[in-house]
Amino acid sequence: MLTLDANILIGWLDRHDACHELAVDIIDSHEWDEFATATVTLAEVLVRPALHGGYEDHLDAITALDVNLYGIDGDMVRTVSTLAARERLRGPDAAVLAVAMRTSTAIATLDRRLAAAARRVGFEVVDEPAEDAVPESGPAWWRWLPSAG
C-alpha cells in the first residue's frame, strides 16, 4: 500500500497545479498499489474545493481512485504527537506519516520536510514515478477528475 500526502492528491486533482504532471505520473506508475491516506489529509485536500465549489467532484474522484482512509485515534494519537514533536512536523504531516508507517510500505509526498522526516525514521519515500511503470496511454481514471474551471 502507498500512502498519499495532500500535495500528491491536490496535484493529481488540479490540472493547473505546478505539480500536476508529477503527481499524475506518480499515481499512474503505482496503479498496481492500493492507496491510503489519513482522514485529516482528505480534509486538507478538500478545503479549496469546499470554498470554490467542486467539493463533491473532488471527493468523487478520490473515491474512484479507491483511497483507503484511516482516522487518527487510540494509539495513533501518540504516534502523531511523537512524530510532530520529535521531527518538528505540522500535525497533518505527522498524521499522514503515522498512517503510512502503520499501513503502507511507502509514502508519496513532494513535501521536502515530510520526506526528510520519513527518511530519518527509516521509511521509504516516493517522490518520482516508478521507472518500470510507464503508462502506454492515458489513465483510465482520468475521466473522474473534475474539470478545471
How would you describe the shape? Answer: globular
N-to-C span: 32 Å
Instruction: Evaluate the radius of gyration.
Output: 15 Å
Percent in helix = 40-55%
Largest sheet: 5 strands, parallel
- How many helical elements? 8
Q: Can you give the mean pLDDT?
A: 88
Percent range for β-strand residues: 5-15%
The number of E-state strands comes to 5
Give the strand order of the largest sheet, numbering strands 1, 2, ... along the chain: 3-2-1-4-5
Which structural class fits the helix and strand makeup? alpha/beta
Low-confidence sequence ranges: 133-149
Helix/strand order, N-terminal first: EHHEHHHEHHEHE
Description:
The protein is of the alpha/beta class and 149 residues long. Strands 3-2-1-4-5 form a five-stranded parallel beta sheet. The protein is globular, with a radius of gyration of 15 Å. The C terminus is likely disordered.
Short overview:
With 149 residues, the protein is of the alpha/beta class.
Features:
5-stranded parallel sheet; disordered C terminus; alpha/beta; 149 residues
SSE layout:
Layout lengths: L1 E3 L1 H8 L6 H10 L5 E4 H7 L1 H6 L2 H10 L2 E4 L4 H13 L3 H13 L2 E3 L3 H9 L4 E2 L23
Parallel strand pairs: 1-2, 1-4, 2-3, 4-5
Helix pairs in contact: 1-2, 1-3, 6-7
